[in-house]
Hints:
Elements: E1 13-18, E2 24-31, E3 35-39, H1 46-50, H2 56-63, E4 67-71, H3 88-102, E5 107-112, H4 116-125, E6 130-136, H5 148-164, H6 173-180, H7 186-199, H8 202-212, E7 228-233, H9 242-250, E8 255-259, H10 272-283, H11 285-289, H12 299-302, H13 305-315, H14 320-327, H15 331-345, H16 352-361
Amino acid sequence: MPASFRAGNPxxxxxxxxxxxxxxxxxxVHGTGPPLLISTCWLSHLQHDWESPVWRHFxxxxxxxxxxxxxxxxxxxxxxxxxxxxxxxxxxxxxxxxADDAGFPTFxxxxxxxxxxxxxxxxxxxxxxxxxxxxxxxxxxxxxxMTDDDIELEDAFEHIIKAGWGRPESTFRRVFSTQMIPDATxxxxxxxxxxxxxxxxxxxxxxxxxxxxxxxxxxxxxxLTAPTLxxxxxxxxxxxxxxxxxxxxxxxxxxxVPLDSGNHILLADEPAWPQFVTAxxxxxxxxxxxxxxxxxxxxxxxxxxxxxxxxxxxxxxxDNDEIARRLTLSVRTVERHxxxxxxxxxxxxxxxxxxxxxxxxxx
Length: 363
């Protein structure tokens, strides 16, 4: 699995898998420690998030003590965009596909924002896979506690998405950005404005929001058996704190940690952030003692066909010039393929070629 940030390797490993209905789902793995699979939040873009002044601290700090597996929901980010089914069952299939493809037999499951019903349903359906549950500004039922005024506001949001989501200027998207991180700097708000634009189309944003309204997993909460931690910002404008109370009272033995923040996405410089990190690290402590080893991913799922050909010839002791002649490529192209191979296999330095060949020969 990818080396941690502490090991000096800041890279995530991006992979793709197929959901049961054929939709291609992009997911990423980074960090070191027990596996922590994230049931994705409303908006994500695996590569864009990686450079983010809003999300980078989240990724790097969790990666210090956990192997983080996160994915772009269907219709979003690097996953397939041409999708119309955002039902709970379809989204559950995405999570299951990522869980299976990542290769960990068991893992902790963190539900962020709208990922709550999916995580609850997965933990109920596959209790042997989930070691513990974490909810972060999430919910079991998106409509829990909503008034008529709240529902009217939701309808207004959908009209805003249709009217201005895809526009180059950020005026309409700023409505959502300020709801998510009201305490943010202009730089942070500007980045989130851009995330909204690049992560999803206006059509998909509306479809997904409409179909998520029917995703209610409340009835399954009393049957969950995994240890559960609920973290929620006290003044969250996107998902009210009432959702945290609903989760923590409905799931047997759940522990609630209120976070003194008005941000839906905690920022790195607010006091609530180290409180969040400490709570999650401590909660995963038992998993660190018995972290399962992931199944080795076949090279055919990691390298392209051409990269396998290049590496196979390198394993025969052929130099770059000979590989280029045999495959009718330029030497520069061969070198580029090798660099891609080294990056995907996370080997570097003078021994990178030897290590990559050894990985091929070991199966």
